[in-house]
Amino acid sequence: KRKVSVKDEL
Amino acid sequence: MNVFRILGDVSHLLAMVILLVKIWRSKSCAGISGKSQILFALVFTSRYLDLLTNFISIYNTVMKVVFLLCAYVTVYLIYGKFRKTFDSENDSFRLEFLLVPVIGLSFLENYSFTPTEILWTFSIYLESVAILPQLFMISKTGEAETITTHYLFFLGLYRALYLANWIWRYHTENFYDQIAVVSGVVQTIFYCDFFYLYITKVLKGKKLSLP
User: Fold this and answer.
1) Are B64 and B48 within 8 A, CB to CB?
2) Cα distance between the two ends of chain A
3) Among B152, B153, B161, B168, which residue's Cα sits nearest to residue B36?
4) What is the percent of chain B where pLDDT is above 90?
5) Is the Cβ pair A7, B54 closer than 8 Å?
6) Whether the Cβ atoms of residue B5 and residue B57 lie closer than 8 Å to each other
7) Residue B211: which pLDDT band, with cuts at 50, 70 and 90?
8) Residue range B154-200, pLDDT digits in tens
9) What's the CA gap between B130 and B133, in Å, rounded?
10) Average pLDDT taken over every residue of chain B
């Protein structure tokens, strides 16, 4: 399933 | 945070610093694509809007601010301070050929149809092709200064290390981000040809020139 990703990367 | 990720970020930062120092010391931006640098500034701006809304870590915040600053200072040096040395004649890649498909794709293929998410997706897709004007410029002039090739090498190394980081994260945290991974693979492929030339020519002390 799709989910908004965790944006901890640069 | 794993070792590939940290080395990737360091390599990314090093690439930007090499470019800034090159321009500053030689007081010239000859051979550098201003269009690629504008695209990178656009990439960071659209991706790091979450600086204002979302705190992740001190490291994350500091790096984002530094990346944004480097990108904007580079653009300023090329189009402002040292614009007389800028080779606009050979920086002739048509940006609309990148921007139109990238904008279209970010509306079609994203995790959620919200402004911030679309902007983030746009930045990921745009980053994967942002170096093309620079590579186009090198293929057009047929050569690159050695320092410019070091810049490209560290930028490509950063991408390759991020791929290793994602493989690591997939195995240790079961984490993966398919948009970032697919774009990252595409982006890394663009550097393969350059890596080959870098290893066979530049590392042996020769200038990078195309036949």
Assistant:
1) yes
2) 24
3) B152
4) 92
5) yes
6) no
7) confident
8) 999 999 999 999 999 999 999 889 999 999 999 999 999 999 999 99
9) 7
10) 95
And the tokens for B133?
A: 């004007």
CA distances from B182 to B51, B84, B150, B177 (A): 25, 39, 25, 9
CB atoms within 10 A of CB B50: 15
Position A2 pLDDT exceeds 70:
no
Residue B95 has a CB neighbour count (10 Å cut-off) of 14
Of A4, A6, A8, the CB nearest to B117: A4
Question: Which of B56, B165, B177 is facing A5, going by the closest CB pair?
Answer: B177
Alpha-carbon gap, residue B132 to B22, rounded angstroms = 20
Radius of gyration of chain B from its Cα atoms, rounded to whole angstroms? 17
In this prediction, residues B89-98 reach a mean pLDDT of 96
Given a contact cutoff of 8 angstroms between Cβ atoms, the answer to whether B190 and B135 are in contact is: yes
Q: Strand pairing of B208-209 and B143-144? A: antiparallel
